[in-house]
Amino acid sequence: MAFHVSKLTLRLPKPVSFGLRPVNGTKHSCIDIKFTNITSAANSRSLHSVFRQASESWLANYRLLKPKPINFRWAVSTAKRLENFSSASVASKSFHLKSTPNRNSWSRLYTVALSVLGLSTGAIAALHTSVLLAMSETIDLDSDRTAWQDAKSLLLSASQEKRRGHYRIDYLPLEEIPVWTSKGASPAQSRYKSNDALRQKISLFRGDITKLEIDAIVNAANKSLLGGGGVDGAIHRGAGPLLKKECATLGGCETGEAKITGAYGLPAKHVIHTVGPIAYGGVGDKERNALRDCYLNSLETAVQNQLRTVAFPCISTGVYGYPPEDAVEVALATVREYLDEHHEQLDRVIFCVFLKTDEDLYQRNLPLYFPQAESAGQSESPPGGQDPL
Ligand code: APR
Questions:
Q1: How far is the CA of 225 from the centre of ligand 1 (A)?
Q2: Does residue 315 contact residue 218 with C-beta atoms inside 8 Å?
């Protein structure tokens, strides 16, 4: 069933002509919309309303024709290119949007050539937003037929309210995760000077990491990145099949490395996958350094992607057999030292424990790395300062 352009009613201001013409040498046909010299404010105003009407009529058609998910790719890439076009400084331009007609799609997607003078960016941005919003209502996160790139792009560009409509599990908002306050360990034993600003960035949360509605949750994965048991299994189950599809494009992950993906049906925006050391035979420098790299590279990956709230499980302390009482020291020292240097780039680091034993372990050790200021005698170290004992 072909989607005829004629259904797209474009009422354009007078100095414009448009029509269909074949793009020579290809199987594409093209709508030529020529906006000639639009200088008067009246014309550009009418152009605004034209684009708004065009996007509404397109969306009306789009809904009417019940597109198959497979067409998201074109719509999203088109909208993206429209956005790039709109953000560019607008002068006289010719603009080609190429679509690859899809055999079994509901429409022969046409290339649209726009040559525009003085087109305001608002009109194209409105088109871009309305196209993406329309798509996001029909995205299917349970089907591995949905293109993960489109789903990821749509979810990351949607508002939190829109994203909540796609969560496959229930969620816990950040504001319901309290900041940690130390109970115990006198400052004499603290390894670091107290620093209230840093301590406000730490949380200890016992529960299911998949429910946290934050920028990124860290996955204790294996080298294949294709899922497994433990927290890895929980994350893949919660995210749905598209997570594995994206992971399959990453070429695996070495111990201590970290790689980032979308989070799909999870409340988090991203998953940072890291592979902890296997430590059945005991812990030496190699295992300690590898575990430290997991925390460091995951934090680096978050900061590089402008993510400000991150949660860690107890990496390697389950199937991989790292003794939890050793792992907790590596985790806390690495995070404290990273926050000393990068405190402005992170708002919250959540230690997400699952077992009561781990919760007790973190309660006992946190005051050694994030001590509360005690008597006036102990000065607060500045956010960047630390005084390892
Ligand atoms: N939320 C938070 N923490 C969890 C969850 C969850 N939903 N499920 C398990 N955990 C905790 C475990 O209690 C443990 O403390 O995560 C910690 C890490 O345990 P594992 O998931 O076994 O991870 P790890 O020890 O690093 O072993 C990784 O196990 O699951 C496989 O595919 C994974 O091969 C990889 C290996």
A1: 13
A2: yes
The reply to whether ligand 1 has any atom less than 6 angstroms from the CB of 228 is yes
Q: Which two tokens stand for residue 215?
A: 């920028």
Which overall architecture, per CATH, does domain 173-369 show?
3-Layer(aba) Sandwich (3.40)
For ligand 1, whether the C-beta of 316 sits within 6 Å is: yes
Question: Hey, what are 365's tokens?
Answer: 């050790």
Phi, psi of 111, deg, nearest 5: -80, 140
Determine the distance separating the centroid of ligand 1 and the alpha carbon of 8, expressed in angstroms. Answer: 52
Residue 237 and residue 225 in contact, taking contact as beta carbons nearer than 8 Å: no
Question: pLDDT digits over 214-243, tens only?
Answer: 999 999 999 999 999 999 999 999 999 999
Instruction: Classify burial at 13, counting beta carbons within 10 Å of its beta carbon; exposed 0-12, middle 13-18, buried 19 or more.
Output: middle
Q: How far apart are CA 8 and CA 33, in angstroms?
A: 13
Q: What is the DSSP letter of 377?
A: T
- Residue corresponding to tokens 């927290």: 231
- C-alpha–C-alpha distance, residues 159 and 163, integer Å: 6
Contact yes or no for 81/97 (Cβ under 8 A): yes
Q: Six-digit token pair at 71? A: 């067409």
Rounded-to-integer distance, Cα 289 and Cα 344, Å: 25
Indicate the top mutation candidate among 222, 231, 236, 266 to test ligand 1's pocket, ranked by most ligand atoms within 8 A of CB: 231
User: What's the start-to-end Cα distance of the chain, in Å?
Assistant: 73
pTM: 0.69
DSSP codes joined into one string, 179-235: PP---S--GGG-SS---HHHHTTEEEEES-GGGEESSEEEEEE-TT-S--SHHHHHH
Contact 255, 185 (CB under 8 A): no
Inter-residue contact 69 to 143 (CB < 8 Å): yes
The pLDDT of residue 232: 98
Sign of CA dihedral 237, 313, 250, 154: positive
Domain positions in the chain are: 5-137, 173-369
Q: pLDDT tens for residues 257-297?
A: 999 999 999 999 999 999 999 999 899 999 999 999 999 99
Cα within 13 Å of Cα(323), Cβ side: 8
CA distance 320 to 307: 28
